[in-house]
Amino acid sequence: MNITPENTALIFVDLINDFKFNGGEDLFSHTEAILPNLVKLRRFAKEKSIPIIYVNDHYGLWQADFRKVIDHCKNKKSEKVIEKIKPDDDDYFLIKPQHSALFQTPLQSLLTELKRTHLILAGIAGDICILFTAKDAYMYKFSLSIPKNCLASEEIQMNNYALYLMESVMDADITAI
After folding, report:
1. CATH architecture group of domain 5-168
2. What are the DSSP calls for 120-165, one per residue?
3. How far is the C-alpha of 81 from the C-alpha of 177, rounded, in Å?
4. β-strands 52-57, 92-96: how paired?
5. Which pTM was predicted?
6. Dist CA 135 CA 126 (whole Å)
7. Considering the chain, what percentage of its residues have pLDDT values greater than 90?
8. In this predicted structure, what is the pLDDT of residue 127?
9. pLDDT for the residue numbered 1
10. pLDDT digit string (tens) for 63-117?
11. What is d(CA 59, CA 80) in angstroms, rounded to the nearest whole number?
């Protein structure tokens, strides 16, 4: 597997989040813990000219406009995360209807257009949306890096189990950054 900045894309999943749901408090605290790693990963991608693609829940807005999604999700709690990791104007932003960033989204077409065959996945929730995205990416023959210190779930044990599955079944490199 030949991994280079020229064939790699960074996919951030569901980082624009309101954390207003059952389990949201736990997910928020675990997201806060990985936030410095996410910022570091984002900076690395910018330095290496690796495209950054945000794929996010649409929150019923069905608008692929990150500013509208941010406005909808911003509250006293979420603002801490959003302000540190929100997209820049030159980043890509897609919405997704369900868990996987590849299910019924233009992500696969975008990756093909950009000639990207290796994906770095990061974000929340590791045991749901990252896991489903990794499964689909694996089925589409993308190689995967999923830094274990760049994803969070409501429960640490479920996050660790998802990492185990992504490494053992989907052949993902889960080395921390």
Report:
1. 3-Layer(aba) Sandwich (3.40)
2. EEEEE-IIIIIHHHHHHHHHTT-EEE--TTSEE-SSHHHHHHHHHH
3. 19
4. parallel
5. 0.96
6. 12
7. 93
8. 96
9. 57
10. 889 999 999 999 999 998 999 999 999 999 999 999 999 999 999 999 999 999 9
11. 19
Q: What is the pLDDT of residue 150?
A: 98
For the chain, give the mean pLDDT: 95
Token representation of residue 83: 């302000």
In the chain, where the domains are located:
5-168
- Residue 65: what residue type? D
pLDDT beyond 90 at 61 = no
Q: Which two tokens stand for residue 86?
A: 């929100």
Distance of alpha carbon 63 from alpha carbon 74, whole angstroms: 16
How far apart, in whole angstroms, are the C-alpha atoms of residue 38 and residue 146? 12
What CA–CA distance (Å, rounded) separates 135 from 58? 21
- Give one word for 23, left, alpha or beta, with left for phi > 0 and alpha for psi -120 to 50: left
- Name the percent of the chain in helix, strand, coil, to the closest 5: 45, 15, 40
**What is d(CA 11, CA 107) in angstroms, rounded to the nearest whole number?**
10
**Spatial distance between the Cα atoms of 122 and 130, rounded to a whole number of angstroms:** 7
Distance CA 12, CA 84 (A): 13
